[in-house]
Amino acid sequence: xxxxxxxxxxxxxxxxxxxxxxxxxxxxxxxxxxxxxxxxxxxxxxxxxxxxxxxxxxxxxxxxxxxxxxxxxxxxxxxxxxxxxxxxxxxxxxxxxxxxxxxxxxxxxxxxxxxxxxxxxxxxxxxxxxxxxxxxxxxxxxxxxxxxxxxxxxxxxxxxxxxxxxxxxxxxxxxxxxxxxxxxxxxxxxxxxxxxxxxxxxxxxxxxxxxxxxxxxxxxxxxxxxxxxxxxxxxxxxxxxxxxxxxxxxxxxxxxxxxxxxxxxxxxxxxxxxxxxxxxxxxxxxxxxxxxxxxxxxxxxxxxxxxxxxxxxxxxxxxxxxxxxxxxxxxxxxxxxxxxxxxxxxxxxxxxxxxxxxxxxxxxxxxxxxxxxxxxxxxxxxxxxxxxxxxxxxxxxxxxxxxxxxxxxxxxxxxxxxxxxxxxxxxxxxxxxxxxxxxxxxxxxxxxxxxxxxxxxxxxxxxxxxxxxxxxxxxxxxxxxxxxxxx
Length: 487
Hints:
4-stranded antiparallel β-sheet, globular, alpha/beta, 2 domains, Alkaline Phosphatase, subunit A, 14 strands, about 30% helix
């Protein structure tokens, strides 16, 4: 009998051991760090093919992570873009579609959801989102003096001083490379004589110097990313930390910032997560929208995605970067120094733009108009030496509709909307954009915010300065509309 009980105990222990082996292992919640540059275009990073700019730390993350090549912002304008990213909603659905406007206090950011689910959360650097977003952070460092000129001085400090008993989320937002550019520890890193301007800018010394200083700012952004990575490694939490490197809109030059084409809307986007990314040096070419960041972060943290988020999680792409994800991305251009109302939809082959203010030129925001790069374009124009591509910013009136064949014309410089060969694509994207506007509560107000400044170098205010018109989406209460639109 004693032998029988001994055998039962032995068998029972073996069965329990097998059961323990088969039980799912509870993985700790990952840490998440988002580095967001200010006014940096997708192809101004070394790993995206720019041979001049020095970004060794970002390039190293891309080498051991995933480099996304078709991630699109929803606005090429600082605060609307950042609010869209952090809420997972389109700009007109945040109630703050225009620059320097704030969503209502009822808006919810994904850091707030993380914080309510045991995450320690810190924001350091540029904020530019509104009071509602501060609820998402245990600590916010948004004062320029304490953050330093580039906004990065509290990044390593934030990681070092975090509590060790919680997963953490860090929103590290640089002021780099927003104008105005003053001297910094990386000034002079890039030689202007080696800079090759893109074909839509002039090739003169002012433009080359302008671009070189811009690259110096990106170098500083990259340097501080490297410092944070070293701190994460020193704390032995690097492997379980998902890192995202991105920007909020295109470079602060004519033809880029505020435009709804790739020069304004496509962002560099690198994801590094040593514990989960098996395919090193992977490239993901699928379309992704900035509103997809919020649900992705929540899903990888094991948190249910609430209905008010309009984006979709792309966690599957982290596991299988070759897969396809979105069929469409949408973006908008509302007031940013000057009156504007454009909407864009893009699929893998074509990009369509609807411009409800075609009588207005698109010279760029005030900071771009005040640049040496703009001055050299004006000089070429006045001398009759400007190319067709360069002169686009001065065109008025502009086409109400634009369509680009992104396979044959990746730079989107040849509008084919009027060509009969593209009627099918034009009608299809026109219909899809109209549907998206209706479903998400977007509209075209008759009284938009007008120009606050003259379209000339220098800060010359107009009679409309500080006067706001009707916010796109306000008529239909788009801020409480959760419709996601086409995917």
